[in-house]
Design a protein that fits this description.
Blueprint lengths: L3 E7 L4 E3 L4 E9 L1 E5 L2 E5 L3 E5 L5 E4 L4 E8 L2 H8 L3 H7 L4 E4 L2 H11 L6 H15 L4 E2 L8 H10 L7 H8 L3 H12 L3 H19 L4 H7 L5 H12 L3 H8 L3
Antiparallel strand pairs: 1-8, 2-7, 3-6, 3-8, 4-5, 4-7, 6-9, 9-10
Organism: Pseudomonas imrae
Protein name: AraC family transcriptional regulator
Length: 252
C-alpha cells in the first residue's frame, strides 16, 4: 500500500471504525469532532488529529468539515521513507494526539490540498514532507473524563414518562452529540439511546416487582404509549413478557 492524500468532507453522520494503517487528519474548514479510544478532541483549521495504527475512532461534524487526510501505510514505509526522521515519526504515530500547526505547516497543508492528489509522486513526497514537518512538534494529549452517569440517570429517571433526546444528555456532558455517541460506545459498548432505553426498562422492572400497577400504567410511566411496544421491549431486554417478569420477580 502506498501513502494516500485525499480531500474528505465530513457531515453529522457518525463514522466509527478502525483500520490497519495510521492516519493524520488535517483540518481545512469547519470543525470535526473526534473520539479516539475514549479520548475526545476536535480538528479545526491549523490542526491535525493523529490516529495510530489499528486505533478505534469515531468522528462527525454537525456543521460540516473539510479535511486533508493522510493514510500512512505501515511502519516499514515510515522507516524506508523518512530515513533519520523515522524514529520521531514513529513516536508521533504511537498514540492518539492532537497537534497544532504553525503558519508554515499550515501553508504546506493548504498547498497540498490544492495539488493533484491522485498523482502518486505528489502523494508520496507530500506524505513525507507532512510527517517530517511534524517531528518535534508539541503534542496536546487529552485524558479521558468519565461521562457523568449519575447526572444521566437522574435526568432519565425524572423524565422517564416523557420523550428524551440524546442531545439532552450531550448538554449535561458538555459534548457534541457525535462525541457523546462515540464515548458511550467506547465506555459502555452501547449507544446513548440504548442506555436510556435500558435505564427505563430497569425502572419498569422495579415497578412490576414492587407495585400492583396495571402493566399499561407501568408502560406509560417509563415512556411507552403503546402497551404492545412496551411488552416487545421488555421481552427483548429480559427475555420475558411483563406479566411473566412480574411473576418471576414475585415468586409465591
Amino acid at each position: 500500500m502506498r501513502p494516500t492524500l485525499t480531500l474528505r468532507h465530513y457531515t453529522h453522520d457518525l463514522i466509527a471504525h478502525s483500520h490497519d494503517h495510521a492516519q493524520l487528519v488535517f483540518g481545512l474548514a469547519g470543525r470535526l469532532d473526534f473520539e479516539v479510544e475514549g479520548v475526545g478532541g476536535e480538528v479545526c483549521p491549523q490542526g491535525v488529529m493523529v490516529l495510530p495504527f489499528s486505533t478505534h475512532h469515531a468522528c462527525g461534524s454537525s456543521q460540516g468539515s473539510h479535511c486533508l487526510v493522510l493514510d500512512v501505510p505501515d511502519e516499514q514505509w515510515v522507516v524506508q521513507s523518512l530515513g533519520e526522521h523515522a524514529d520521531a515519526s514513529r513516536r508521533l504515530l504511537d498514540q492518539p494526539a492532537r497537534v497544532a500547526l504553525d503558519a508554515r505547516q499550515g501553508q504546506l497543508v493548504n498547498w497540498l490540498a490544492s495539488s493533484p492528489l491522485d498523482d502518486a509522486l505528489i502523494a508520496q513526497q507530500g506524505a513525507i514532507l507532512l510527517l517530517a514537518s511534524l517531528n518535534g512538534q508539541s503534542v496536546a494529549q487529552h485524558r479521558a473524563r468519565r461521562l457523568p452517569y449519575g447526572a444521566f440517570n437522574t435526568l432519565i429517571d425524572q423524565q422517564a414518562a416523557y420523550p428524551l433526546q440524546v442531545a439532552d444528555l450531550a448538554r449535561l456532558a458538555d459534548l457534541s452529540v457525535a462525541r457523546l455517541h462515540a464515548r458511550f460506545l467506547a465506555e459502555c459498548g452501547q449507544t446513548p439511546m440504548d442506555y436510556i432505553r435500558a435505564r427505563r426498562l430497569q425502572m419498569a422492572r422495579g415497578l412490576l416487582r414492587d407495585s400492583q400497577l396495571p402493566i399499561g400504567e407501568v408502560a406509560a410511566r417509563v415512556g411507552y404509549g403503546s402497551q404492545s411496544a412496551f411488552a416487545a421491549a421488555v421481552l427483548r431486554e429480559f427475555g420475558s413478557s411483563p406479566g411473566a417478569l412480574r411473576r418471576l420477580d414475585n415468586p409465591r
